[in-house]
Amino acid sequence: MKKTSAKRVKEVARDPAERIRTLRLLMGLTQGELAQAAGVSQPLISQIQKGIKLVTDDVLVRIAEATGTPMSFFDVDPSDLPADTLMFRKKASASAKEVSRVEATVREAYRVSVRLMTDTKVRRTSLPRAEGDITADGIEDLAAQTRAALGIGADGVIGHVIRACERAGVPVVPLMLVDSQGQGEDIVVGHSGASCWRGTAEPSMISYFSAGSGDRQRFTTAHELGHLVLHPARRNGLDSKRAESEAHRFAGAFLLPRERAEEAFNGPLMLREFAALKKRWGVSIQALINRAYDLGHIDQARRESLYKQLGARGWRTSEPVVVHAEQPTLMRAMLGRKYGEPPSLLQASEELGLHPVLMRSLAPDVAIDPAPRTMDNVISLGDRRRRSSRLQAL
Q1: What does the pLDDT look like over 66-105, one tens digit per residue?
Q2: Would you put residue 135 in left (φ > 0), alpha (ψ -120 to 50) or beta?
Q3: What separation in angstroms does the CA of 167 have from each of 56, 151, 185, 350?
Q4: Please, which residues have CB within 8 angstroms of residue 205's CB and are 6 or more apart in sequence?
Q5: Maximum distance among all Cα pairs of the chain, rounded to whole angstroms
Q6: What angle do CA 109, 348, 361 make, to 5 degrees?
Q7: Following CA atoms 329, 333, 334, 338 in sequence, which dihedral angle do they give, to the nearest 10 degrees?
Q8: What distance in Å separates the CA atoms of residue 152 and residue 253, rounded to the nearest whole number?
């Protein structure tokens, strides 16, 4: 009796129509484009999405083959995905489609990371959590508490920001988007990082879409860590602009604690001094200028003057002093524990229900292995479209 009940619950939870919608969002496809690629009619896809028609296995197979997606993708329980706990800054020019693609991609990566953390028994460190109203001084204190929780010295340079997060059981994962041809695509719709969680006591994840310079990557990781500390218990009524400002303040305080900043900013602050500090702390000149402003060592006029000097030298887009990019290791290690060394990414893709391109982005240093029989018939969406006239529409 218990077996039947459990099976019934799983059947109710499974929602392939919702997963088809998620796949369209991931790949930036309209209903018509997906229908044409899969060789079915657009009205059929529309009726499936509206719940008017049930999804048949034949339709799922066609969609899976056309997009290079494992069939297991459609068996995922949508409740495994976080609903409204994703933070990332969007550019005003970003289209709704671009934003939806990023959100869907991050949520899929979060789902997989939580599954792997559970399967491989990764231990998590409790992070400090902000509650209620918070001041700038409160953010400084929380940054100090986070350092202590992560086992980082109170006032020293953080040698590896990503590893510090991962040692605490917070996966930091590189991601790319899956384009309409089923290939990887790098686009930037705003801030290059994103943070995701499903509750104050549940696992969290940090992701980034383009590492960029090492100093930018370090700040992005610290910024997203700030979201995880500052915002899980304070989402209601929180303005997104304020949330970003708070995370910026946290990142500065986390990377360059107030006590050491007071020493560093004592005296004349010319660009050469900021460049020397960048080399020491692994923080960009622009972020250091903002840190000096936040702590009252320079005023608004001086900050603007320094930014003009940066622009005149071409340093707004390409700063001097190279800070090497950091490499995450936790996701790669979890895949190795579960799927052997080197891990079979296509096996992982099949078992975890994730598009192979996204799976590859989680562990970019692992060579892709030969496709198993279940993937032999995958062709590009472009080829599928060219052949669509020869396919019978359902």
Answers
A1: 999 999 999 987 665 555 566 666 666 677 888 888 888 9
A2: beta
A3: 44, 9, 29, 28
A4: 106, 109, 110, 113, 114, 170, 171, 172, 173, 195, 196, 197
A5: 77
A6: 45
A7: 160
A8: 13
**Structure-token pair, residue 143:** 């940054």
Cα–Cα distance measured from residue 237 to residue 235, given in angstroms and rounded to the nearest whole number: 6
CB 25 within 8 A of CB 108: no
Distance CA 310, CA 313 (A): 5
Looking at the DSSP bridge assignments, the partners of residue 190 are 90
Q: Which two tokens stand for residue 245?
A: 């400002």
260-269: burial string, b at 16+ Cβ within 10 Å, e else: bbeebbeeeb
Smallest CA-to-CA distance from 87 within 225, 212, 254 is with 225
- Counting Cβ atoms within 10 Å, is residue 183 exposed (0-12), middle (13-18) or buried (19+)? middle
Distance separating alpha carbons of residues 80 and 281, to the nearest angstrom: 39
DSSP H helices, the chain, are 2-13, 16-27, 31-38, 42-50, 57-67, 96-119, 136-149, 161-167, 214-230, 240-255, 258-264, 271-281, 285-294, 300-312, 330-339, 345-352, 356-362, 381-386
| Stretch (H or E) spanning 204 | strand 204-208
CB atoms within 10 A of CB 286: 20
pLDDT of 272 higher than 50:
yes
**DSSP conformation letters of 108-145:** HHHHHHHHHHHHTT---PPPP---S---HHHHHHHHHH
Query: What's the whole-model pTM score?
Result: 0.87
Residue 86 phi, psi (nearest 5): -125, 130
Give the pair of three-digit tokens for residue 48: 């499936």
